[in-house]
Each structure stands twice: as structure tokens, then as C-alpha cells.
Amino acid sequence: MALTLPPVLQAPFGLLGMEGQPDSRPRPPLDSPEKGPRDGRYDLGPARDPGIPYDDPWPYDPDARPSVGDHAAWHKWRALQLAEEATPGFDEAAATFKHYLEGSGGDYHIDYDTAYRDDKLIRDAVDAEIRRAQENAERLYRESGRRDFQITGEPTEIKQTETKNWEYALGRHSIWGSADVRVDGDRATMEITVHAYDRYNFNREDKWINQENGRFETLGWARSYDTHGTLKRTVTWALP
């Protein structure tokens, strides 16, 4: 009697190879065409994506062929993803890893308000970005004399998270701000959107976790992708 694995644990292209896999896949550019100066300043104008660059450490190789070890690693990581999915407090970690293993490469939206609430280091970084936007709003008001204007900023990197859930879902990632500012007398009101961005992939280093999961992308079984999220806040303060 033949043994049939549950669908979630089956290799994505069968146990004998990569049937149906295209010869090539379009890969995203290594750098966005808009790369800002990253000097921490905001400029006048509507929201402008600063074009945060990313690398592609495990490019798809149409000539790569899976080994028995690759299949074993795939089944192991699919089982671990299911276990993570069933573990309380790891919702986003499990969902983002599942999206990687599903291999669509499509953008993924995260609830950044939840990240802000759950993770102190993310919360501290976002609060600092809002203060930075306020300082820039004051500067641009003094320089332009405008009382109703828009501002857009350059990215800053959040290098560490506090919780394991958000470490696995986002880890090191970037944020940038855009805002509408109004000045009424000696008070300013700013409606700011903080944009979060991460490229979900596995670094090319000697850690076995990265080696095994990165290999899946080289084989065409998984695919890295862009992660986006936003949160909005309104702040009012007295101008100095």
C-alpha cells in the first residue's frame, strides 16, 4: 500500500523533481530607482516611497535539482510551520513563514498597529520617528511660512525587536513617515502615517536555518517577498 503524505507536507513539485517549474522567474530589482539620501530629514510634499534597497541572497536557479536532504528539510520546515501556527503568540511569525513557503512572492500586509502594541522596541522606534517628524514639521513651517502642508521623510532602520513573534515576522526592518500638518496660531496638528517595510528572506550565511530555508528559494519551492504595514497617529502640540 502506497504511503500518501498530507498535502501540506508534500514537496511542492512532487517527490521526483520539479515538474512544471518554469525555466526562469522574473526577479525584482536589487535597488528601487528612488534611493533617498537617508539623512533623517523630511521634505515638503506628498508621501514619497524612499525606495529602500534589498538584496536577493538565494536567487532561483532553474538548473538546481533537489536532493533527498532537500525533501527531508522541506517536510521538516512545513511541520515546524504548522507547529508554530498552533502556538499561542506566534500568529504573525507563522503567517509570514507560511507565505514564504507557499512561494507566490506576492506582497504581504502586516498589522503594524498590533506590532506597535505588542513590541516595546518597535513602539519606541515609532514614537521616536513621530518626534522626528514633529521637529521637521517645525523646521519646514519656519522655512516656508506655510500653515497647511504635507511632508515626507527618509527611512530609519529598526535593528531589533523585543518579542520572538515580531523577530521572526519582521526582525530588522525599516520605517518612514509622511504627514499632513496644519498650524493654527501657536499650535500645530500633524496627522502622520508611519510606513513599515521589510524584505522577507533568509540571509546568505552559515546558519543552518538560513541555509535550508534559502535553498528552498533556489529550488523554486519558496519565494522571498515584500512586507508592508502602516499605522496612523494624530498629534497636537504647542510650537516653540
Explain what the structure shows.
This is Tim44-like domain-containing protein. It comes from Nonomuraea recticatena. This protein is of the alpha+beta class. It has helices at about 70-85, 90-100, 110-120, 120-145, 165-170, 210-220; strands at about 40-45, 110, 150-155, 155-160, 175-185, 185-200, 225-240. It has one domain. Helix content is about 35%, strand content about 20%. Strands 1, 2, 3, 4, 5, 6 and 7 form a seven-stranded mixed sheet that branches. Strand 5 (about 175-185) and strand 6 (about 185-200) form a beta hairpin. Helix 1 packs antiparallel against helix 2 and helix 1 (about 70-85) packs across helix 6. Residues about 1-40 have low confidence and may be disordered.
Q: How many helices in DSSP terms?
A: 6
* β-sheet strand percentage: 15-25%
Low-confidence stretches: 1-38
State the domain count: 1
Q: Rg, please? A: 22 Å
Using DSSP, what is the number of strands? Answer: 7
Helical content class = 25-40%
The end-to-end distance, rounded to whole angstroms, is: 80 Å
| Overall mean pLDDT | 86
Largest sheet report: 7 strands, mixed
Order of SSEs, N→C? Answer: EHHEHHEEHEEHE
Class of secondary structure makeup: alpha+beta
Please tag this protein with its features.
Tim44-like domain-containing protein; 240 residues; 6 helices; seven-stranded mixed sheet; alpha+beta; 22% strand; 33% helix
Brief overview:
By secondary structure, the chain is an alpha+beta fold. It has helices at residues 68-85, 91-102, 112-118, 120-144, 164-169, 208-219; strands at residues 42-44, 108-109, 148-153, 156-158, 173-184, 187-200, 225-238.
